[in-house]
From TrEMBL, chains A, B:
GO CC entries: plasma membrane
Main location: membrane
Protein name as catalogued: CASP-like protein
Pfam families given in the database record: CASP_dom (PF04535)
Membrane topology: Multi-pass membrane protein
Domain called Casparian strip membrane protein: residue spans: 6-143
Keywords of the record: Cell membrane, Membrane, Transmembrane, Transmembrane helix
Subunit structure of this chain's protein: Homodimer and heterodimers.
Residues annotated as transmembrane: 51-71, 83-106, 133-156
Family, similarity comment: Belongs to the Casparian strip membrane proteins (CASP) family.
Cell compartment(s), UniProt: Cell membrane
Amino acid sequence: MTKSKRVLISLILRLLAFGATVAAVVVMVTSHDSAQVLNLTFTAKYSNEPAFKYFVIAEGIASAYSLIVLFTYSQNSLRRLLLILDLVIAMLLSSSISAAVAIAHVGKKGNNHAGWLPICGQVPKFCDHVSGALVAGFIAAILYLLIVLSSMHFILNPLFL
Amino acid sequence: MTKSKRVLISLILRLLAFGATVAAVVVMVTSHDSAQVLNLTFTAKYSNEPAFKYFVIAEGIASAYSLIVLFTYSQNSLRRLLLILDLVIAMLLSSSISAAVAIAHVGKKGNNHAGWLPICGQVPKFCDHVSGALVAGFIAAILYLLIVLSSMHFILNPLFL
């Protein structure tokens, strides 16, 4: 594969990852719904749950990083630093999506043993938004795994062939 | 740094990671406690929560992988495959620890907005065990990040110096 093709693939992956992380932030931040339970208004929003706040912060960091890299990618001297930062971002994304999925699962199914009731029946719009954000976050995490693997492949190839 | 020193550092990191993952599995699996609430016996154990089951499975996979690598490390031809597998294990560990921490946080602090009450007041022994397992899991994730970074450093060094 020629060098220009490698750069093109890397840039496309980074552009897609940028889109996915921005979508995840926007969809999660705009998620709110309210319900009347026993004459009390109950409002669900992402900022009520630390795991969802962590998700928004992690996806925000990843989208800012993706944007910066898109504009500085041509500088070859940064290639090594980029690989390490890509790795850290990939781990950050896989960590934040897992925390958010764990909480979303309790929100959807509840946990009988702990007495935690599901809330998605009361605030379906909130749950739909969160699900959408999680799908976008999952795609971003997969894209960053591909970015790390492809960078490693391109850099390591000469050593092994 | 000589090659033998590199191999020694890598083996020590892998041995420590093996110990940490085994400790995480054992401490999490042996965590159970019960409490009397309104004349009903309420038993808390790790298998009641999908995130904790995922944690045990992920740490189990990582400890089996660490053990296999400790016995096959001398084969140089596997170095490239190892780097990719190390990366996958590092992401698996960071993902599982995050999911477990998110649920443990709800167990400890509850979530007022969703009406989920904390359970650690009723089953303190269970919560102590879970906390111990999470600390071991966190150490294992950090060790795997170090393993990936050091492998990358050793393999990439000749290209950049």
